[in-house]
From TrEMBL:
Pfam families: Rick_17kDa_Anti
UniProt organism field: Duganella radicis
Name assigned to this protein: Glycine zipper 2TM domain-containing protein
The keyword Nucleus is assigned to this record: no
Keyword Signal: yes
Gene Ontology CC terms, in alphabetical order: outer membrane
Keywords: Membrane, Signal
Subcellular location: Membrane
Domain of life: Bacteria
Leader sequence residues: 1-21
Length: 196
């Protein structure tokens, strides 16, 4: 074996081991750079062609090869399986917020509040003033009754904010304590998240 063959074999082995150590995205980026360099070199070779018809055919062939190679690289990148132990839908809890979810008011709260407000408004003034106070009391009472009912029916809500390993972010709402803390590792499961 000549020195050149040995050097080429060592270079290929080092490139293969470096490719295994790279992430799929890094491998894809390296491959696209390599293909772009090759395409530029092919175009230079085509430019040396004297006959314009052959030069144009050479450029078309170079472009076709470049497009095929890029499509193949893209398909391999999209289909690259996750490394063992790697989880595509895993992340970490960045924040857990306890809040209150407003309840929904019904007609009962509006009616009860309106009646109570009208009765109180009817106690004020006389004549047309009493009628205006009754109407104003009914309107104010209806609004207050709706708000009181919403407050009485409100529930606690836990919002868990997640930062995925690939950089995505999402929030999940729970009507019970999910028993998760900031920093916990989680993964997607049936439209929600579970501890990992």
């Amino acid at each position: 074996m000549s020195n050149r063959s040995i050097m080429a074999a060592v270079l290929l082995a080092s490139l293969a081991s470096a490719a295994q150590a790279q992430s799929p995205k890094d491998q894809y980026n390296a491959e696209t750079r390599r293909l772009a360099t090759r395409y530029a070199e092919d175009k230079k070779l085509c430019a040396d062609e004297q006959d314009s018809g052959q030069r144009m055919q050479c450029l078309r062939d170079a472009k076709t090869e470049y497009d095929k190679s890029m499509a193949l690289a893209k398909a391999q990148y999209k289909a690259s399986p996750a490394k063992p132990g790697e989880c595509r839908d895993c992340g970490k809890v960045t924040q857990v917020v306890l809040g209150e979810k407003a309840g929904e008011g019904s007609a009962l709260g509006v009616i009860a509040g309106g009646v109570a407000g009208a009765l109180l408004g009817n106690q004020v003034g006389s004549g047309h003033g009493r009628q205006l106070a009754t109407v104003a009391g009914a309107a104010g009472g209806a609004y207050a009754g709706k708000k009181i009912e919403e407050k009485a029916k409100s529930t606690k809500q836990w919002t868990v904010h997640v930062q995925y390993d690939d950089g995505r972010q999402a929030s999940f709402h729970f009507d019970h304590d999910p028993q998760m803390l900031t920093g916990d590792r989680v993964q997607n499961a049936n439209g929600s998240i579970i501890r990992r």
